[in-house]
Structure formats: C-alpha cells, structure tokens
Description:
Layout: H1 2-25, H2 56-75, H3 79-93, H4 101-132, H5 138-156, H6 159-168, H7 182-221, H8 229-243, H9 246-257
Helix pairs in contact: 3-4, 3-7, 4-5, 5-7, 6-7, 7-8
Amino acid sequence: MDLLKKKSNFKIYLCLFTILGLMLVCPTYSFAQPESPINLGISLEGSGPSGEPLNGFEILFILTILTLAPSILIMMTSFTRIIIVLSLTRNALGTQQMPPNQVLIGLAIFLTFFLMSPVGAQINENAIQPYLSGQMDQQEFLDEAMKPVRNFMFKQTREKDLALFVNLSSMESPDTLADVPNSVLIPSFIISELKTAFQVGFLIYIPFIIVDMVVASTLMSMGMMMLPPMMISLPFKILLFIMVDGWNLVIKTLITGFK
Length: 259
C-alpha cells in the first residue's frame, strides 16, 4: 500500500511540475479561447529570375539538384580518379587505416574543387548569371551548364570507351561530339577514369613491392620465417615514401594528369 501511495504521489508531483514548467516557459500564454482561430501552415517562398515567385517545378528542380549533388560530384568530376589513387597509395604503403578515410575523402574533395574551379567559373558566367538575370529559360540554362562539364569529360574519356557505349546503346554513330548524349558520355567517362586510376595505382605499387620482396628474401635467408615481413618492411616503405616526398609526387601526378 505504501508503494502504491508513493507512486500516486509521484505522478501528482510530476503533473504539477509539468504545469509549472509550462507556465514558466510560456508566461504570456492564455488558456482562454483566442479571439481568432490560429492557422498553422508551411509555405515555400522565393523569387525567380525575373522576381516572380518560384513555381512548383522550380522548387522541385532545386530539390532534385540538391539530392543528386553527391552523385554529380563523384561521377562527373575528377573525384573518382583522385579517391581511388589515394586509396591505392595507402594500401601500397600497408598502413591499414592511416591516413583515415575521412582524411582521404576530404583531400579528394578539396582537390576536386581545385581542379573543377575553371569549369565552375564557366558555368557561373555562361549559365547561372544569365539565368538569374532572366536572359534564358530553364532548358537553355541546363544546356549551357552542361557544356563545360561535357568538355571536361570528353578530354578525359577514351575513344574506345565512348565507342563501346555508343554501340551498346544501338544509336547511330554521332557526327560530332555534340551529338553524343549524356547517357552515353557519363558511363564512358567513369570507366575511363577507373582505368586511368588503376594505371596510376599500379605504378605506385611497384617500388613498395620491391621493398617487400627484398625484406622477405632477407628474412628467409636469415631463417626468420616466423617473423611477418610486413612488420619489417613497413618502416622502410614509410621512410622511402618520406624521402621521395611521396604525397607531393602523387598529388602532382593527379593534377597534371587532368591538364
């Protein structure tokens, strides 16, 4: 019985403290009926290129662009090649999770911004500013915004990869690059970037493989078969990477590869 009384008293005290808290937080709240009904609603307001309110299509278009922004950043820029090369470099060193994934991704993002800044400047000058000033409609804006990006992708795409997707799409052979649709260009660009990234990664692996082989052969000749070669070769690989200023060479190779 005492336990039930304590529980009921606790509930009463809890209700009282809740009411007092509401009165302290909202001291001006009146429990009487308001003179006019309260209307709650959410509105999306903004101005379009000519100062008129944004319509539903424009709002949907903006939300779609924001949703697809990560995919656009990864698949249509230099990000793919950079992050793969950096990951292969870490694996070649054998340092497990050093540098961490967050560091590699952050470095890849900022290098992507550095490399894509001329493309972004062209998009802003030829598409965004004219659209905001009302000089072009939405379709013209999309076409002008894609031109610098398409030029960048064409420079990095191999003809063999482009021909592959042209044949797979069963379309007629395009006369000019402008006739190549984005649905063909984007996957061609991606597989070209993958091939280039693995080529660079292979060249990075070669000196570290030599170090591993030398250390493993030395340990076997000394009869230390139970000692893991990676434990001995890791300091030498890090030392080699530091002596040749490895990160400088890797980043320089990545950046110059896009020029």
